[in-house]
Amino acid sequence: MLLVNHVMSNDVASGIFSDIISYYRSYAPPGIEHVASASAALGGMIRHYHRPNLESRLSGPCVVTVHHDLRDDDPSLTVQHFTDRYREANRVICLNSLQRDYLAADGITNTVVIPHGYHARYIRARGDATDTPYLENTGSGKNGRVVIGVFSRRYPRKVKGEGYIYELAQRLDPARFEFVLIGKGRTYDAAVLERFGFDVNAYEALPYKTVASAYRTVDALLMSSWFEGGPANIPEAVGGAVPVLCNPIGMAKDMVVDRENGLHLSMDAGSDAERISAWLLDPASRADLREGAMRNAGNAITWAIHASRVVDVYREVLNETLGSILTWQNAS
């Protein structure tokens, strides 16, 4: 039996971390057990740190995951709080190539890129025989309007780009676009967009299965964050063959190809609105993006693949530090 100790470094509950560890448990191969604790547990095991900035020293052998944007200007997330711990780790798991390249520029090269995944049981790609808007190349909304989805919670820091969304919306035609918003705090944004003249469906909280099915109701996902390690909606949209309109940061940089399965935003609302309208309102261009989204759905991986790749990292670290030990052989 190989024990993997997920060290949370404090007692503050995190729904995101709990979900990730539940995926690791669900997809763990025989002989591997995942145990979460606030501090590093004693005994022979590999440790996986998720908040290394809260530690004064890591207990090896260990890996850490970079869950945030290393350029984030939040004082609690500045990279200086993390780099010493990254250097101590046997391996640093990055979610995207931007994190890897940022760390490499600082001399930290003990890295591997493993993006977060999507739940294959619930995310179903658009474009199948039941998807009438895709088959008929119309918008998915009322009277053929193009539906833009914003699937993320609203943060007080407005790090998700709420101001940009408002500026962008004021340059789009409410007669030809509508919105679906899902996430805590998004009813506030819905009221603003409705004042701009848009039809908006907004939901503060939905079961994950319902959120997953909502991707099949939108023609494009809008990801306008200023800083991102992920976010989760990128692999979900890409795996679901939904074109993505994104600031090319986080996992979007690696999964979304400009003018192929989405559009890279300049974050200038005026020029972006013109480009979005040109691509999504023109039938031929819209069809090109939809076909590209279907071709590139494999740019995202499932949670099962993600968990398997993380196990491979545990294997590498244990072999490097302890050799091909019997415990690992029995767990493989």
From TrEMBL:
Pfam assignment, any one: Glycos_transf_1
InterPro entries: Glyco_trans_1, Glycosyltransferase_grp1
SUPFAM superfamilies for this protein: UDP-Glycosyltransferase/glycogen phosphorylase
UniProt keywords, alphabetically: Plasmid
GO molecular function, one term: glycosyltransferase activity
All copies of domain Glycosyl transferase family, residue ranges: 150-293
Organism domain of life: Bacteria
Protein known as: Glycosyltransferase
